[in-house]
Amino acid sequence: MREKARERCSEQVQDFTKCCKDSGVLMVVKCRKENSALKDCLTSYYKDPAFYEECKMEYLKEREEFRRTGIPTKKRLQKLPTSM
User: Fold this and answer.
1) How far, CA to CA in Å, does 25 sit from each of 17, 20, 29?
2) What CA–CA distance (Å, rounded) separates 84 from 82?
3) Alpha carbon of 69 to those of 6, 51, 81: distances in Å?
4) Helix (H, G, I), strand (E, B), or coil: what is residue 60?
5) Cα–Cα distance for residue pair 2/42, rounded to 1 Å
6) DSSP string, 8-41
7) In this structure, is the dihedral angle defined by the CA atoms of residues 24, 8, 71 and 67, taken in order, positive or negative?
8) Are the C-beta atoms of 62 and 73 separated by less than 8 Å?
9) Nearest 5 degrees, angle CA 11-CA 50-CA 72?
10) In this structure, are residues 19 and 31 in contact, taking their beta carbons and an 8 Å threshold?
11) CB-hemisphere CA count at 13 Å for 60?
12) Residue 19: how many CB atoms within 10 A of its CB?
């Protein structure tokens, strides 16, 4: 759920990341505005019932597939090396 929300808030993530890189140690003070914007965006997705249901259905689908095959989704999506 967190990863999907971060993808949808990519603009705020980029702004916050850029601010942190530019500010160094002072990022705690200098990047408050960007941090607040990022938190507001993420929180809006976390509280959205439709987004929650979408993530829940995706999780249940992945869990069902894992129980059926015994292979996690991430491993299943990786290409297997071909032997010659």
Assistant:
1) 13, 8, 9
2) 7
3) 29, 27, 20
4) helix
5) 8
6) HTHHHHHHHHHHHHHHGGGHHHHTHHHHHHHHHH
7) positive
8) yes
9) 80
10) yes
11) 6
12) 17
Residue 14 to residue 38: CA distance in whole angstroms: 9
Cα–Cα distance measured from residue 28 to residue 16, given in angstroms and rounded to the nearest whole number: 11
Q: What is the pLDDT of residue 64?
A: 93
Average pLDDT over residues 14-18: 94
Q: How confident is the model at residue 82 (pLDDT cuts 50, 70, 90)?
A: low
Q: What are the φ and ψ backbone dihedral angles of 71, each rounded to 5 degrees? A: -115, 125
79 three-state secondary structure: coil
- What integer pLDDT is reported at residue 27 of this predicted model? 86
Helix (H, G, I), strand (E, B) or coil at 84: coil
